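pasting for ref
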Amino acid sequence: MTEIKFAEKKDIVPIYETETLSFSQPLSKNEIENILNNKSYTVMIIQKQKRYVGHIIFYTVGDTAEIISVAIREEERNKGHGKKLVIEAVTRNIETGVKNILLEVRVSNAAAINLYKACGFKIIAERTDFYEKPRENAYTMKYDIRKVML
């Protein structure tokens, strides 16, 4: 059984470990702690049988939210955990009156792009040299607020 809940300080280490294994420019432990202490950010984790599986981090300013990280432990990928987290984040933001939900993703990250499309996001722009290590373009994606999540 899986459960989504708000992250706590005790979750910093598994979040950091998953960030480090998932991204070439991961968030540091200090950045994760600062995010947890900032009311503009929301960090949610997904657990399977009370064990950390992955997380999503987003921030909200006014009527816009931006997803900045979705990461799932490697052995738990392709099991629907990422989709559950994204849908939870979208649902929470819509319920609080958010009108725009955005994210950036590496143009080479087909798995993430497909996940976001499956959740109702559409590519709206390409940003040149957005990422480093390696240098790469990013797609900006926006949630289609008209799409009804099931």
